[in-house]
């Protein structure tokens, strides 16, 4: 048990290091003064916001009365230059070309050698109030109206299509890099805006760890097959060079999970890809922009009218095929809330979303109505960084599910290109039973407001969360039928 606790402490130290961002506050405040246009202006208050996964954020109150939000990406946010440069270009494109309500960027730098010593974005404070503080107090009619606005904004986002799958940049920023990355120009370069281009993806899952210094294919791509094969080959290349054997007690208590196990699953995935992706000219291949993380706190509204005034968190957003986009906003995820009335409201909101989507964006609605959509898209979504997430089970499970639906996926009459041995399927079944048992408890901890999935808690709630964790961990151990199983249950519990 000591080894597991040491490993957990090591991981926590790694996470803290990945979120540590050194910068020069006086220089950042000087940059904010320049934004005001008044040389005699001063910053009279600095408020540190609750830290997100990928950014430091400060609210700077200036003597002129302005409030400026300063955001600095953490080291774990992905490639520093590309992450900042792409977000800035994407936001200008969406705000000035499509009229999406996004806070205006006052100043920015993607060069850490600047006076601040870090990449940064200075932007206006989001107008309105975060929807998370209002949502559950609103009547159903107001909630439905906000969902309607969300669909309308999504439709506006989808009104421009792109020939390539990748992130948006200013063309000049990509041309300034050495070596210069692959990119494709965005068509219809009008409206008096800078020239935009589609370049490499910036999400950390394509750059994590040693991937950051490897020559991997991060786009852009012309088709889903090109993308899906690229991420599989990227992971194989990374695994061959950097993955190391490790114990996965949910899989086996005797044999380690090896890079060869991972590569074997990836090779089978690559053989499936041509059958998972939709045909080249179908609507699912259409490339548009969508917001991948529309949860309640990323949406701001006027509390008097419930009109959406701002949408934030556009970091890592890309132009991607509809087939690979999130099926519906995170804010409409169904919870496990046992209260019948609460469940009825959640289901009604989700039903209304799809009703509205059917009339506003029938192509996307038709794709999401395909019962095989999740079966075909899930394996592709799980590949990037799968080993790092310690989630080979989910990828293998998605591939097994695709094989189980083979006749429906292939149209029949085509021999399955891959198989799993009886031993592999038996080990997978045993792993599933353990994972489902733990997952049920973890979801209950989240629903009860005790510990969120993933184990992240605020510092002030740490001690309470630790006590609840110890209690439920012991309850899970007590479910074991013998001493060997008790030891196994202790090993597979994810929080320490």
TrEMBL record:
Organism domain of life: Eukaryota
One Pfam family named in its UniProt record: APH
Recorded GO CC terms: mitochondrion
SUPFAM superfamilies: Protein kinase-like (PK-like)
InterPro entries, sorted: Aminoglycoside_PTrfase, Kinase-like_dom_sf, Mito_inheritance_9
Coiled-coil boundaries: none
Residues covered by the Aminoglycoside phosphotransferase domain: 61-321
Full protein name: Phosphotransferase enzyme
Source species of the chain: Aspergillus pseudoviridinutans
């Amino acid at each position: 048990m000591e080894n597991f606790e040491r490993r957990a402490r090591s991981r926590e130290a790694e996470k803290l290091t990945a979120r540590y961002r050194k910068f020069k506050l006086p220089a950042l405040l000087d940059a904010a003064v320049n934004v005001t246009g008044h040389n005699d202006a001063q910053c009279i208050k600095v408020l540190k916001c609750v830290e997100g996964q990928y950014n430091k954020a400060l609210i700077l109150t200036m003597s002129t009365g302005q409030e400026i939000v300063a955001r600095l990406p953490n080291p774990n946010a992905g490639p520093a230059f590309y992450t900042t440069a792409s977000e800035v270009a994407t936001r200008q494109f969406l705000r000035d070309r499509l009229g999406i309500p996004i806070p205006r960027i006052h100043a920015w730098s993607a060069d850490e050698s600047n006076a601040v010593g870090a990449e940064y974005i200075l932007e206006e404070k989001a107008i309105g109030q975060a929807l998370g503080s209002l949502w559950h107090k609103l009547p159903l009619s107001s909630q439905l109206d906000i969902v309607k606005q969300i669909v309308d904004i999504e439709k506006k986002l989808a009104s421009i299509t792109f020939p390539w799958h990748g992130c948006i940049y200013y063309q000049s920023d990509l041309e300034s890099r050495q070596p210069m990355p692959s990119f494709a120009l965005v068509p219809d370069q009008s409206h008096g805006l800078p020239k935009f281009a589609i370049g490499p993806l910036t999400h950390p899952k394509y750059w994590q760890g040693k991937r950051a210094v490897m020559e991997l294919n991060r786009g852009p791509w012309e088709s889903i097959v090109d993308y899906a094969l690229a991420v599989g080959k990227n992971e194989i290349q990374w695994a061959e060079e950097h993955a190391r054997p490790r114990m996965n007690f949910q899989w086996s208590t005797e044999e380690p999970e090896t890079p060869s196990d991972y590569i074997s699953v990836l090779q089978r995935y690559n053989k499936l890809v041509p059958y998972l992706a939709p045909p080249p000219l179908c609507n699912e291949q259409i490339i548009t922009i969508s917001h991948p993380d529309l949860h309640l706190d990323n949406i701001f509204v006027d509390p008097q009218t419930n009109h959406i005034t701002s949408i934030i968190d556009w970091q890592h957003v890309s132009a991607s095929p509809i087939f690979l986009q999130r099926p519906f906003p995170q804010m409409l995820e169904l919870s496990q809330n046992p209260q019948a009335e609460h469940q009825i409201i959640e289901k009604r909101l989700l039903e209304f979303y799809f009703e509205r989507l059917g009339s506003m964006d029938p192509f996307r609605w038709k794709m999401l109505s395909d019962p095989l959509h999740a079966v075909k898209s899930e394996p592709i979504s799980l590949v990037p960084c799968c080993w790092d997430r310690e989630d080979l089970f989910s990828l293998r499970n998605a591939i097994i599910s695709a094989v189980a639906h083979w006749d429906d996926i292939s149209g029949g009459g085509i021999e399955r290109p891959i198989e799993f041995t009886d031993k592999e399927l038996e080990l997978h079944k045993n792993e599933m039973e353990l994972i489902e048992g733990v997952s049920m408890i973890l979801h209950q901890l989240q629903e009860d407001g005790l510990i969120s999935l993933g184990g992240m808690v605020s510092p002030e709630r740490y001690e309470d969360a630790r006590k609840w964790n110890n209690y439920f961990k012991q309850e899970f151990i007590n479910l074991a039928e013998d001493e060997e199983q008790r030891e196994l249950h202790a090993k597979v519990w994810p929080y320490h």
